[in-house]
Amino acid sequence: MQHAQPQRQLTVRAAIAGMLLGGFMSLSNLYVSLKTGWSMGVSITAGILAFAIFSLLLRLRIVRSAFGMLENNAMQSVASAAGYMTGGGTVAAIPALMMITGETMDPWSMFFWISMIAMLGVVMAIPMKQQMINVEQLRFPTGTAAAETLRALHAHGEASENKQARFLTWAGISGAVLAFLRDAHGRFIPFNFPAKFTIPGVTLAGRPLVDYTFALESSLILIGAGMIMGFRAAWSMMLGAVINYGGLAPWLYENGVLEEKLGYRVIVGWSVWFGSAMILTSGLLAFAFQWKTVVRAVRSVSHAFGSSQDLDAREVPMTWFFIGCAIFAPIVIFLQWYLFDIKIWMGILAVFMSFFIAIVACRATGETDTTPTGALGKITQITFGALDAGNVTTNLMTANVTGGVGLHSADLLTDLKSGYLLKADPRQQFWAQFLGVAAGSLFVVPAYHLLIPTPDVLGSDQWPAPGAQTWKSVAELLVKGFETLHPTAQVALLVGGLLGIAFVLLERYLPRWKKFIPSPVGLGLAFTMPAYNTIAMFIGACIALWLEKKRPELAEKSVIPIGSGFIAGESLMGVLIAILVVIGVLS
Q1: CA–CA distance, 117 with 128 (Å, rounded to integer)
Q2: Which of 20, 36, 299, 342 is deepest in the core (most CB within 10 A)?
Q3: Total-model pTM
């Protein structure tokens, strides 16, 4: 029998609000990730929005009672699971496979694929919760921050939510209006806002700057992403853009390595090898330095299997883990075979590896607030690249399984940390995550096919898909071999890999100088996306830095809401415009 709670938690209205807010935020994450390779947090933004919305509904007497703190926490669990449904492969493995094969994944296959991986990830988090949260009290910084935000909102009422909600609302409206003026092409619109601003008359190697993707894109999404990501990552990306598009690309063009037409696709076809190598080696080395975390993670979970008799009545019992794995693991194995022709024994191995990768992902998230899905996914790619040499589909989609399971396990534990601090019911949060997975899949899959109707739009100026570019390059390298690359690309691969290692070593052994050392992930990403994306993100980071230095109190309350608002407003309008084009309202 379920333990009685003093406050309502997973109510119908909390579930519906979480599914809708998380679903819309999943669209934002899809849109932004396909453009920049980054995704934004969901929980805190959803909590602020839900509180503001229900406060307004209460004032208008549309609802009878206030939205409680534990209701909001349950809503956050639903919204977080929905918002992170891009982690099931829709911004990395799936578009990478589409770019390689030239084939589109049909909607129903994609829906079952990403939702089953996510549900398996939720189930696999069960053994980690008791040990990592209850016993060891790992911080899970985002979960802790989300709990503190809810406490502040519900303790101080309208005064605490007004400023943040207003910043978010007005930023969202600004992003939506800009996107509409720029992207909507209808007879009732007297003009169109330019997509990019260029500097006429300035050339590099005899070609206009825009040919090297140097321009200012009229996008508040990118400025918002820059505001949220932090200054070190942003200046590292800017440095990479200047080196790649301002130095290497003109030199390669003058020496006949790059084609005459230039542009993003031509340049990134070479530069992706440098960027991907840097991201790969830095991620793997940083992960290797966390070997103590890996050992602690495995040991802690082994204790969890023997401690079920001491569980609080509200805790998720270990039997749910075994039942969930018995249901979802065979489905994921079957889908690997049915959709991608992956051998059954390899599918079993991928699911088996997923459990240990989920342990490490949860532990790393609890200690550092960073989920190393990229590095963990690459370990799977390399493993299956050796086991099934020459099969690009196997090494991509098995990595999709392990990375997706790890991400969703870590997301549940982050939510459970918030609930633990607020004394919420973990069983209700567990079911909330399942609702979020279903909602996020229902939002993401149709939106993906609206935005990416054919594989040829991937890797274009409109949809650079930097994350997918990295997955694609690793898969192709494992299949084709190092010797098939152009000699200059081989050098770029080697130099990028060595620099990735060097930067991680510098970060580790010169921690005082870390802010002056380029972020290897940021620098590497700059080699996989257009310079105009990077420039706009750098501007956003500079704005946030200026606010933090000059107006720290204002920055604390405004930077994340404004950045999130820009992202949400513009991305949702972008999806709406795509829908209007399909139904014939816009051209």
Answers
A1: 18
A2: 36
A3: 0.81
The per-residue pLDDT for range 437-485, each reduced to its tens digit, is 999 999 999 999 998 989 999 988 888 888 888 888 888 888 877 787 8
In angstroms, the Cα distances linking 51 to 14, 75, 242, 353, 368 are 11, 10, 43, 40, 28
pLDDT computed for residue 428 by the predictor: 92
H-helix or E-strand spanning residue 216: strand 216-217
Q: How far apart are CA 419 and CA 348, in angstroms?
A: 33
Among 90, 150, 14, smallest CA distance to 442 is for: 90
Phi-psi region of 157 (alpha: psi -120 to 50; beta: other; left: phi over 0): left
Say which DSSP state 252 is in: H
Cα–Cα distance list, 138 to 224, 293, 559 (Å): 30, 12, 27
Which candidate, 205, 197, 198, 144, places its Cα nearest to that of 419? 144
Identify which of 184, 221, 290 has the alpha carbon closest to the alpha carbon of residue 37: 221
Q: What is the pLDDT of residue 293?
A: 63
**Contact assessment for residue 171 and residue 561, using Cβ atoms and an 8 Å cutoff:** yes
User: Is a pLDDT exceeding 80 seen at residue 395?
Assistant: yes
3-state SS record for 91-149: CCHHHHHHHHHCCCCCHHHHHHHHHHHHHHHHHHCHHHHHHHHHHCCCCCHHHHHHHHH
Tell me: the pLDDT tens digits for 500-525?
Answer: 999 999 988 998 998 899 988 889 88
Q: Torsions phi, psi of 208, nearest 5?
A: -60, 150
Contact at 8 Å (CB) between 513 and 295?
no
Q: How many CA atoms lie less than 13 Å away from 380 in the CB half-sphere? A: 35
Q: Alpha helices, DSSP H only, in 289-423? A: 291-304, 318-340, 344-368, 373-387, 392-422
Give the span between the Cα atoms of 364 and 380, in whole angstroms: 18
The burial of 179, by beta-carbon neighbours within 10 Å (0-12 exposed, 13-18 middle, 19 or more buried), is given as buried
In whole angstroms, what is the distance from residue 226 CA to residue 204 CA?
27
Tokens of 377: 């996914």
Pair of tokens at residue 14: 């909390």
Contact 274, 526 (CB under 8 A): no
Task: Please provide the DSSP assignment of 439-469 as one string.
Answer: HHHHHHHHHHHHH-SSGGGBTSSSB--HHHH
Given a contact cutoff of 8 angstroms between Cβ atoms, the answer to whether 476 and 470 are in contact is: no
Report the DSSP beta bridge partners of residue 463.
458
Which residue from 435, 436, 386, 381 is spatially nearest to 403, judged by alpha carbons? Answer: 381
